Amino acid sequence: MSTTEGEHYFTARPATADERRELHVTLAGRELTVTTARGVFSGDRVDRGTAVLLPHVEPDAEATGDVLDLGCGWGPVALTVALAQPRRTVWAVDVNERALDLVRRNAERLGLDVRAVLPDDVPDDVRFAEVWSNPPIRIGKPALHDLLHRWCTRLPPGGRAHLVVQKNLGADSLQAWIAAGGVPDVDVERTGTAKGFRVLTLTRR
Ligand SMILES: C[S@@+](CC[C@H](N)C(=O)[O-])C[C@H]1O[C@@H](n2cnc3c(N)ncnc32)[C@H](O)[C@@H]1O
Q1: Is 95 a pocket residue for ligand 1 (Cβ < 6 Å)?
Q2: Hey, which end of the chain has fewer CB within 10 Å, N or C?
Q3: 26/17 Cα distance (integer angstroms)
């Protein structure tokens, strides 16, 4: 999936004009206004796959520990977790710097503490109780596998990763790769299926 003018959404510094827009969305049951832009993934609405993933984030006022939104775009997943689970420390990573700027602005506007940083800027010793992701399937299978390995090996025992993947874009083969040990020491199950998307949940043994 590209943005406009053939440029991929995972460009570090999008060449498209940085035209910001206001978007009215419902996240964690709250009607909100967020800022999005051209040159980031799904800047004109909450993506259909993301909309399948978000109801899996349960409100939990007591939950603590670090959570990662892997490939955050303008931040619908990170913002939802921060709203639903306010005691969490939420990290949002992306390679697209425009996306990170949007997450920071959106979080600040909502009074939320979200650490939106480039992947290499997450300290090595941080472990994630949960990882949430609408992952960048379009980067290709080898890069996607490396990405999932890199971040899902930072779950502690019992930690969980929730991924939404379009069935037509290889959700079942991705599940098979994980189950075959592509991500070591995890069990993987399908915890949701809707509108052509699967939600895969990995639990670290
Ligand atoms: C399918 S989009 C999902 C965006 C957002 N979470 C949402 O739901 O709208 C995947 C995101 O992963 C980002 N991405 C691509 N390669 C990445 C990498 N190596 N590390 C982190 N994020 C990456 C892309 O820039 C894009 O924003």
Answers
A1: yes
A2: C
A3: 27
For 46-204, which CATH class? Answer: alpha beta
Could you tell me if the CB of 139 is within 6 A of ligand 1? Answer: yes
**Residue at token pair 């931040």:** 75
Q: Provide the 8-state DSSP code for 2.
A: B
β-strand partners of 136: none
**Looking at residues 54-72, what average pLDDT do you find?**
98
3-state secondary structure 74-103: CCHHHHHHHHHCCCCEEEEECCCHHHHHHH
Distance 62 CA to ligand 1 centre (A): 28
Q: Is the CB of 147 under 6 A from ligand 1?
A: yes
**Mind listing the pLDDT tens digit for each residue in 75-130?**
999 999 999 999 999 999 999 999 999 999 999 999 999 999 999 999 999 999 99
**pTM greater than 0.85:** yes
